[in-house]
From TrEMBL:
GO molecular function annotations of the record: lactose binding; lactose:proton symporter activity
Cell location: Cell inner membrane
Organism name: Klebsiella pneumoniae
Family affiliation: Belongs to the major facilitator superfamily. Oligosaccharide:H(+) symporter (OHS) (TC 2.A.1.5) family.
InterPro entries found in the cross-reference section: LacY/RafB_perm_fam, LacY/RafB_perm_fam_CS, MFS_dom, MFS_trans_sf
Keywords: Cell inner membrane, Cell membrane, Membrane, Sugar transport, Transmembrane, Transmembrane helix, Transport
Transferase among keywords: no
Gene Ontology CC annotation, any one: plasma membrane
The protein's name in its UniProt record: Putative proton/sugar symporter, LacY
Regions that span the bilayer: 12-32, 52-70, 82-103, 109-134, 146-167, 173-191, 227-244
Length: 288
């Protein structure tokens, strides 16, 4: 539905969650692309230790994702899960500077476990919970999810360049910026009123008689060969991405005379890649 056709409350929710996506992925971009650089250059971790950290994050992502999925379904349009993620993001800078970094240098296992729990909640599993919630809000408020989601891509792209420049000055600057923007997330979440419209409530009620999820249904999936083939495919793709995420940033900056310049250019490349990818999606959508 066009923006002009939305009711005032629906327009407000459109703007609030568009900005929520922008700032959430801005914060994530302050961490994710540059995380291997931060581990190596700031905390002086070896490649093996970096692998331990990434493995811990993946482990807790596997644990939290199904839990968050069930919680999201139970909570519906209630904001409890998003408030939890937002409060933890406000602590982003204090956590990285005063908790995570010292722990990594004292004990790699303890640091990896604590970091895995935190990052697993706010990003690895949290991003899925955020997207599922806003997608549900978009259906309840009659606006297109894709239009607000693209703001997250812009936030990610913008932050990548900013972080690349600031990292050579002081990596902690971007952490504090991220914590500041998390306060904005809290304000947006407080202002939003994502209650369902009457028509959305009717549609939801019509779907209330659908067969509920059960362990028996899940067990039936395990007997499907195509399901196992799909699992192998996903695991293979995820493994390739994990190797890329762990190594590419440090590999890329090794081609430059100074690490600072390499990190700066890496930020610009990340921005360009993200914008090019989204432009391609827009063009493909336009041909449909």
């Amino acid at each position: 539905m066009k923006f002009s056709e939305l009711a005032p409350r629906e327009r407000h929710n459109f703007v609030y969650f568009l900005l929520f996506f922008f700032f959430y992925y801005f914060i994530m971009s302050a961490y994710f692309p540059f995380f291997p650089v931060w581990l190596a250059d700031v905390n002086h971790l070896t490649k093996t230790e970096t692998g331990i950290v990434f493995s811990s994050i993946s482990l807790f992502a596997i644990i939290f994702q199904p839990v968050f999925g069930l919680m999201s379904d139970k909570l519906g349009l209630r904001k409890h899960l998003l408030w939890t993620i937002t409060v933890l993001l406000i602590l982003f800078a204090p956590f990285f500077i005063f908790v995570f970094s010292p722990l990594l240098q004292m004990n790699i296992i303890a640091g990896s476990l604590v970091g895995g729990i935190y990052l697993g909640i706010v990003f690895s599993s949290g991003s899925g919970a955020v997207e599922a919630y806003i997608e549900r809000v978009s259906r309840a408020n009659r606006f297109e999810y894709g239009k607000v989601r693209v703001a997250g891509c812009v936030g990610w792209a913008l932050c990548a360049s900013i972080t690349g420049v600031l990292f050579g000055i002081d990596p902690n600057i971007t952490f504090w910026i991220a914590s500041g923007f998390a306060l904005v997330l809290g304000l947006l979440l407080w202002l939003s009123r994502p209650e369902s419209s009457n028509s959305a409530q009717v549609i939801e009620a019509l779907g209330a008689n659908r067969q509920a999820f059960s362990l028996r249904t899940a067990a039936e999936l395990l007997r499907m060969p195509r399901f196992w083939g799909f699992i192998v495919y996903v695991v293979g793709v995820a493994s390739v991405y994990d190797v890329f995420d762990q190594q590419f940033a440090n590999f890329f900056k090794s081609f430059f005379a100074s690490p600072q310049r390499g990190t700066e250019v890496f930020g610009f490349v990340t921005t360009g890649g993200e914008l090019a990818q989204r432009a391609d999606h827009v063009l493909r959508a336009g041909h449909r």
